[in-house]
Amino acid sequence: MLSIEQLSQMVQAHLGLTNNANEAQYTTKWIIKESPLGGRGIFATEDIASGEVLFVDHPLISGPRSGALIRRGCTVCSKLNTNKLFKCHKCSLLLCSESCKNSSVHDDDCGIISGWHSKVPIEEVDAALLSRALTAVRALLLNEEQKRFMTSLQAHILPQHGTEVKELQQYFEIPEGDVQLMILASCVLDANAFQIATSYGKEEMGKRGLYPVSSLMNHNCVPNTRYSYNSDLQMIVKAVKPIQAGCEMFTCYTGLLWGTPARRIHLYKTKHFLCKCERCADPTERGTFLAALKCFSAECPGSLLPIEPLKSSSSWRCFECGLRVPCDNICTLQSALGSLIGSLDFGNLVELENFYLCRVTKYIPKTNQIVIDLQCRLIWELGEIENHRWHDEQIEFMKTVYAILKINSFRIPTDDREKTIPLRGLFPLAAFLNHNCVPNTRNVFKEDDTMEVYASRDIERGEEIFTCYTNFLWCTPVRRYQFRSIDLLTWGQRRKTHGRTSSSGGFAYLNQLSEYRLALKEQLCRDTLRTVAALGAGDAHLRGLLLYHLHAALAERARRCPDLYDELKSEIESTIDQAYKILQGDISAPPDLELRHRYLGPGCDKPQEERFFILDTSENLAVSMK
Ligand SMILES: [Zn+2]
Ligand SMILES: [Zn+2]
Ligand SMILES: [Zn+2]
Ligand SMILES: [Zn+2]
Ligand SMILES: [Zn+2]
């Protein structure tokens, strides 16, 4: 076990703070010392302002995550492009390209693995298992000093850790010393590794990294720091709120918006401790009621919460009527809710939206983490995902369809006594017929939705065949008017009332929903921001994302309705400004963050139209900026 002194020296060396202190981008305002929570922790030595960089950590080792369910990609660049992946013929690691194969990263990996004697032909080695164990394998590349640093970190020495390394021995004869070091690396990784965020919108194999300085920070359910990654895999750790001299600096190993029982179970299962922080001890979690369930008594509007949240077997009690419910009943309800949520198709926005709006709050209070989680999913997707972008491609398609229908479709007569709404149909061959107010054909609509076109008088060879787009008994002004009278709304309604809507509905229907969804997105952002603020989470990463999405919704509203600009201007500017301050430099940040900040943030003196012009083209610009 290293002394605090030795550990501090290693940390300084690791962060590169010893040699070129004057060139450092930040000065350390913290030290490592014994924590009242047990073990070591990082403590502020001076007052630290919100947003200040505390340190920039880099991984001792990094690589694929070890979970059996993680999709496996290239072991060098993490790409998931499954058709192109192949196994290295020397070591059996998955690769995507010749350049990844020839990279120094693969050279190192390959050198170790191909150095082991394989018990089976190399192509029979399980590439997925190799990928799961690879991060631990890379510990063999560390120098002695780095190994000492790694082994000084907390490790989970339990049989369930390091199984992927043990399984590797089915395929390879590995020197005992290497096996021991890799198992230890696995145990250290499981206790300390951080999942590395991927670039915005990119699908990559999940990676983790052992960031030794960050891993010295203890956990708190309301952390006072946040971290982000840059493209060099560096982790930048910043204060999310002012930290006073002498205070401990905390990170958070769970979801910020999970309720207390969920957080504590997760921490116990993955990190083997039960959190006793201030938030965990407060049944209401600072008034956010994230874990609350509906009172079991039908008449009561109250919420159930654990009486003693630090005891996992605590009974729950209704805050309104005092009804007590034993822990077992709560667990049954929670697992029922779990399977209800598990049955949802998270890829289906419409289903999520319906569930959120109509069903979920029948079972659980609006404050419950499940509702909040749905809220966040909807926020991330509304306006952003395929088919639900601000400028819906479906709408564009519908417009085209409408334009075609407007010119080409025929009104299908219906029996007036049934008072049905008129139908129309696109008959593609008949649509080639030009219009004449005295046509030489007539149309007969049949029961089976076909249209028969008869000659209404003798037609000579070479004569053009005409139809009449209006009622030919009408006088000219009426006929003209009729061409303009069909509007989008009518069309949408007709289609809908007849149950013939495609899944996306008519154009007008979608358009209405879009406006509505825009308002929904704004509302969801505001609600969730309130919860984050109530927790005292400061400028957490999540707050940055929520502000970005709130900004996007407000800006879209102003773009659609320029009259609202003056009213919305200051909030459009302040939300993107705050989001930018929190998310800048983060590889997982939305790619148009910078551009939006420049054009729609405070201090942009361009005229209104020009500022909003970027919303139409921001996607293209963001791509070309790369
Ligand atoms: Zn690759
Ligand atoms: Zn290889
Ligand atoms: Zn463990
Ligand atoms: Zn806690
Ligand atoms: Zn009650």
TrEMBL record:
Q: Which SMART domains match?
A: SET (SM00317)
Cite a single GO MF annotation: N-methyltransferase activity
- One Pfam family this sequence matches: SET
CDD domains listed in its UniProt record: SET_SMYD
- Tell me the InterPro entries matching this sequence: SET_dom, SET_dom_sf, SET_SmydA-8
Domain SET, residue spans: 28-470
User: PANTHER family under this entry?
Assistant: SET AND MYND DOMAIN CONTAINING, ARTHROPOD-SPECIFIC, MEMBER 4, ISOFORM A, SET AND MYND DOMAIN CONTAINING, ARTHROPOD-SPECIFIC, MEMBER 9, ISOFORM A-RELATED
Kindly provide the name given to this protein in its UniProt entry: Protein msta, isoform A
